[in-house]
Automatic annotation (TrEMBL):
GO molecular-function terms, A-Z: DNA binding; DNA-binding transcription factor activity
Originating organism: Corynebacterium yudongzhengii
Isomerase among keywords: no
UniProt keyword annotation of Protein transport present: no
Keywords annotated in UniProt: DNA-binding, Transcription, Transcription regulation
Domain HTH marR-type per the UniProt entry, residue ranges: 6-141
UniProt protein name: MarR family transcriptional regulator
InterPro entries given in the database record: HTH-type_Bedaq_tolerance, HTH_MarR-typ, Tscrpt_reg_MarR-type_CS, WH-like_DNA-bd_sf, WH_DNA-bd_sf
Amino acid sequence: MPKDSPQEIARAIRPAMTKLYVTYFRIAEQSDLTGPQLSIMTRLREEGPMRISQIARDEGIRMPTASNALHQLERRELVTRVRDEKDRRGVRVDLTELGESELERVGAERVNYLADMLSALNEEDLAQCAEFADVINRLADSYGAPDIPQP
């Protein structure tokens, strides 16, 4: 197998990614919003009001899981239910102003946590990370696409 095959690259970076993931989320757990809640809120900010079924599908979670996460967010007044303009029987979920500000606050905290982790690198390694940032973002975008099979 070639040294730069997806399998070899995965084998080389998986342990470090796991370690970084665990470390990052231990620090980030100080936030009172979970990763899935932040993901849902970010999706609502980017795509606008959505039906719960669409959120569940796009997030790759079951309807009861989505409903529970949204219920928790609604209780905190971070999201609100609104009538579907196209189908008056339907309900969509939308981000509130408080939800938007909370998403910004937690996002800024997490950027700071990750920046602290990156600050341990020397200038050369940091420059390589900067170059690789676009690749990581493309990977995240394409991996979450509905037409790509996911484990």
